[in-house]
Amino acid sequence: MKIDRIRSWPVDFGFYNAVYVRVETDDGAVGEAEVAMRRRTRSIVALLDELGDELRGQDPTRIEQLSERMYRDAFLGGTLLTIGISAVDMALWDLNARVLGVPVHRLLGGAFRDEVLVYTHAKAGESPDALAATARARVDAGFKAIKTTLPGFYEKVTSVHHEHGQLVPARQTETELLPPWIFGYIAEYFQAAREAVGPDVHLMVDCHGRLNVANSIRLAEALAPYDLTFIEEPVPYERPDWLREVSSRVSTPIAAGERWGNHFSSAPFIEQHTVAVAQPDVGICGGLTAARKIATLAEAHGVSVAFHNPFGPLQSAATWQLSATLPNFLMSESMITPEQAPYWERYVENPPRVDGGVWRVDPSPGLGPRLRLEELERSEPRFVLDLGGTR
Question: Does a structural domain hold residue 387?
């Protein structure tokens, strides 16, 4: 059995493009995967074409060897490279598990748990009451954990202007002046959300690296009464020393890791205890092969894993197959919101199901879902360069 070709389809997935991938062998075996990176769709497709040329004729059962080869032979790394590697790697795991007739988690050591806790998203909205209503609706739908973004920082998710001033500009850096009312303003949202969902629901906030160290500490202090499960990426992700300082000075757990390029780039963050929660993304860090190494490193340092995963059905299936095997798994992100759910059914058969806020381990061979090739061929990606408000 040899790799014959790698095919890819960029498709519209609502507010971003997904790229679906299929590794095909000379004897008819296939493996499928999904990745995404906003605004760089063409780059990913071009990289996958090049990787297909490099891997043609190789043995698809040698996943570790091929993952190492794709990374080392490139000479230059970074996430634009590891996203392509992630796609191929996940497809290879899917292919091998299908050939053997077992689910991927069997090849990763077997299930440690039968259910994987997932959290969903809630827009901050135009007021504290709006966030509270959305959070309550998510709980009514069965979710036990909810994350939102920083109120006041994103016009697409918080459209109101505060009575004392404008929203924080979309491109404001972490070192620029913030309005003095901003931390009390953010706290009002989480007070309303906590009152709406009660004490047992997990609440989180994603800062997308928008704050400096001092303001991250001020945020954590303002939100401490509302018992957040974690604060995600309070400072720019490139500086483990900044994250470590925040973590050492606040009581709320700090999470980061979605932009790690592989297990090497994660090591300083985990070994220096900059985070309590590691958030690798299997579609960014190098696939299941690299994500498992990150999780093992985190386990050795007493760090939990909460996978970054705001994407579609195949990447979610891969994420949750791995999640089921990990002793130090905390929870996984999910983008099964009412706006995103239709795309899950559109592009794959047998998409993963979340019921009662959990994914139950699927015994289907491979990753589980299967691509709808005709639908992929019909879909047109949207190449729109929108840099506003998404830092």
Answer: no
Question: β-strand 3-12 against 17-25: which pairing, if any?
Answer: antiparallel
Q: Are residues 114 and 96 in the same domain?
A: no
Same domain for 29 and 149, yes or no, is no
Residue 378 is assigned to a structural domain of this protein: no
Q: Looking at the 3D structure of the chain, how many domains does it have? A: 2
CA atoms of 26 and 1, how far apart (whole Å)? 6
For residue 291, give the amino acid letter: A
- In 49-195, DSSP assigns E strands to 115-121, 145-149
What is each CA distance from 143 to 82, 138, 254, 325, 337, in whole angstroms? 31, 6, 22, 22, 11
- Confidence at residue 166, expressed as pLDDT on a 0 to 100 scale: 60
Each residue of 190-205: b (16+ CB within 10 Å) or e?
bebbbebbeeebbbbb
Residue that finishes a domain, picked among 81, 103, 125: 103
pLDDT in tens, 244-268: 999 999 999 999 999 999 999 999 9
User: φ and ψ at 350, to 5 degrees?
Assistant: 60, 50
Closest of 351, 320, 322, 350 to residue 333, by C-alpha: 320
Domain span at residue 11? Answer: 3-103
Which CATH number belongs to the domain containing residue 87 in this structure? 3.30.390.10
Which residue type is seen at 162?
H
β strands within 13-114, DSSP E: 17-25, 30-35
C-alpha–C-alpha distance, residues 149 and 138, integer Å = 15
Residue 232 pLDDT > 60: yes
Q: Say what the pTM is.
A: 0.94
